Amino acid sequence: MKRVILVAAAAVASIGIATASAIAAPVKPIQTFTETGACSVSDFTTTTADDCFGLVLNSNDDTTPDTNENKQATFNLETFGSETGLFGNTGYGFIAKSDNGGLSDGLSYSVSGTIASFNYAGDLSGFEYVVYVFKQSNDFAAYLFDKTAAPTSGAFDLSVFPNSDSLSHISIYAGGQTTVVPLPAAGWLMLAGIGGLAALRRKKKA
Fold it and tell me: Structural domain of residue 139, as residue ranges?
């Protein structure tokens, strides 16, 4: 089933107080992204993603707004179609990208037949959600991991693409970084007090 995502460029209306009429500022043409629905959460052969979006046709993945008028528009993972981002998340940050299999940002991959084997040397466990993007030519598919632990290595079935034996790049985006909550100062004081009492009891027994 085909779905169409419309990304509206910023539009600003200024109200003329003297004339009490609204004057619309120039509006950038709406970007249209067509999703074919061809992707599957099972496109990873070594794990299963929690959700997928794609193929997205004639587009390129990015986290920054599109500032050019190229035919191949930038698909902004941060804000598309509404104020929420891809898969309903916001705050995506770029993690790594490997072009044509070369090692970059700790990420690399190789293609054998219809399978792309990838490896990321970093740690993705500290993020609430991770998105892998696989791109071939002008089309790509995005895969979400937010309940299942995001893999740092594995294999991907290229059959989702029209040409199932090549890949342009793999990108990783993530957000919602988790943080370790420090023990409050009062907690440290309580632990110190308990330790002091224990030492005092040992001294009395001696």
Answer: 37-205
Candidates 118, 72, 68; CA nearest to 96 is 118
Q: Taking the model in full, what pTM does it have? A: 0.71
Q: Which of helix, strand or coil describes residue 159?
A: helix
Query: Exposed/middle/buried for 138, CB within 10 Å: 0-12, 13-18, 19+?
Result: middle
- Residue 16 is assigned to a structural domain of this protein: no
- 67: in domain: yes
Chain centre distance of CA 93: 7
Kindly state the tokens that stand for 177. 């970084």
Per the structure, the count of domains in the chain is 1
**Whether residue 171 has pLDDT greater than 80:** yes
Any domain includes 51: yes
Across 38-126, where does the E strand assignment appear? 51-56, 59-62, 73-76, 93-99, 107-112, 115-120
pLDDT in tens, 75-123: 778 755 444 678 888 888 999 999 999 999 999 999 999 999 999 999 9
Burial profile 61-77: b = 16 or more Cβ within 10 angstroms, e = fewer: bbbeebeeeeeebbbbb
Q: Are 46 and 117 in contact (CB under 8 A)?
A: no
- Whether the Cβ atoms of residue 29 and residue 68 lie closer than 8 Å to each other: no
In this structure, are strands 73-76 and 153-157 parallel, antiparallel, or unpaired? unpaired
Give the pLDDT score at 126: 93
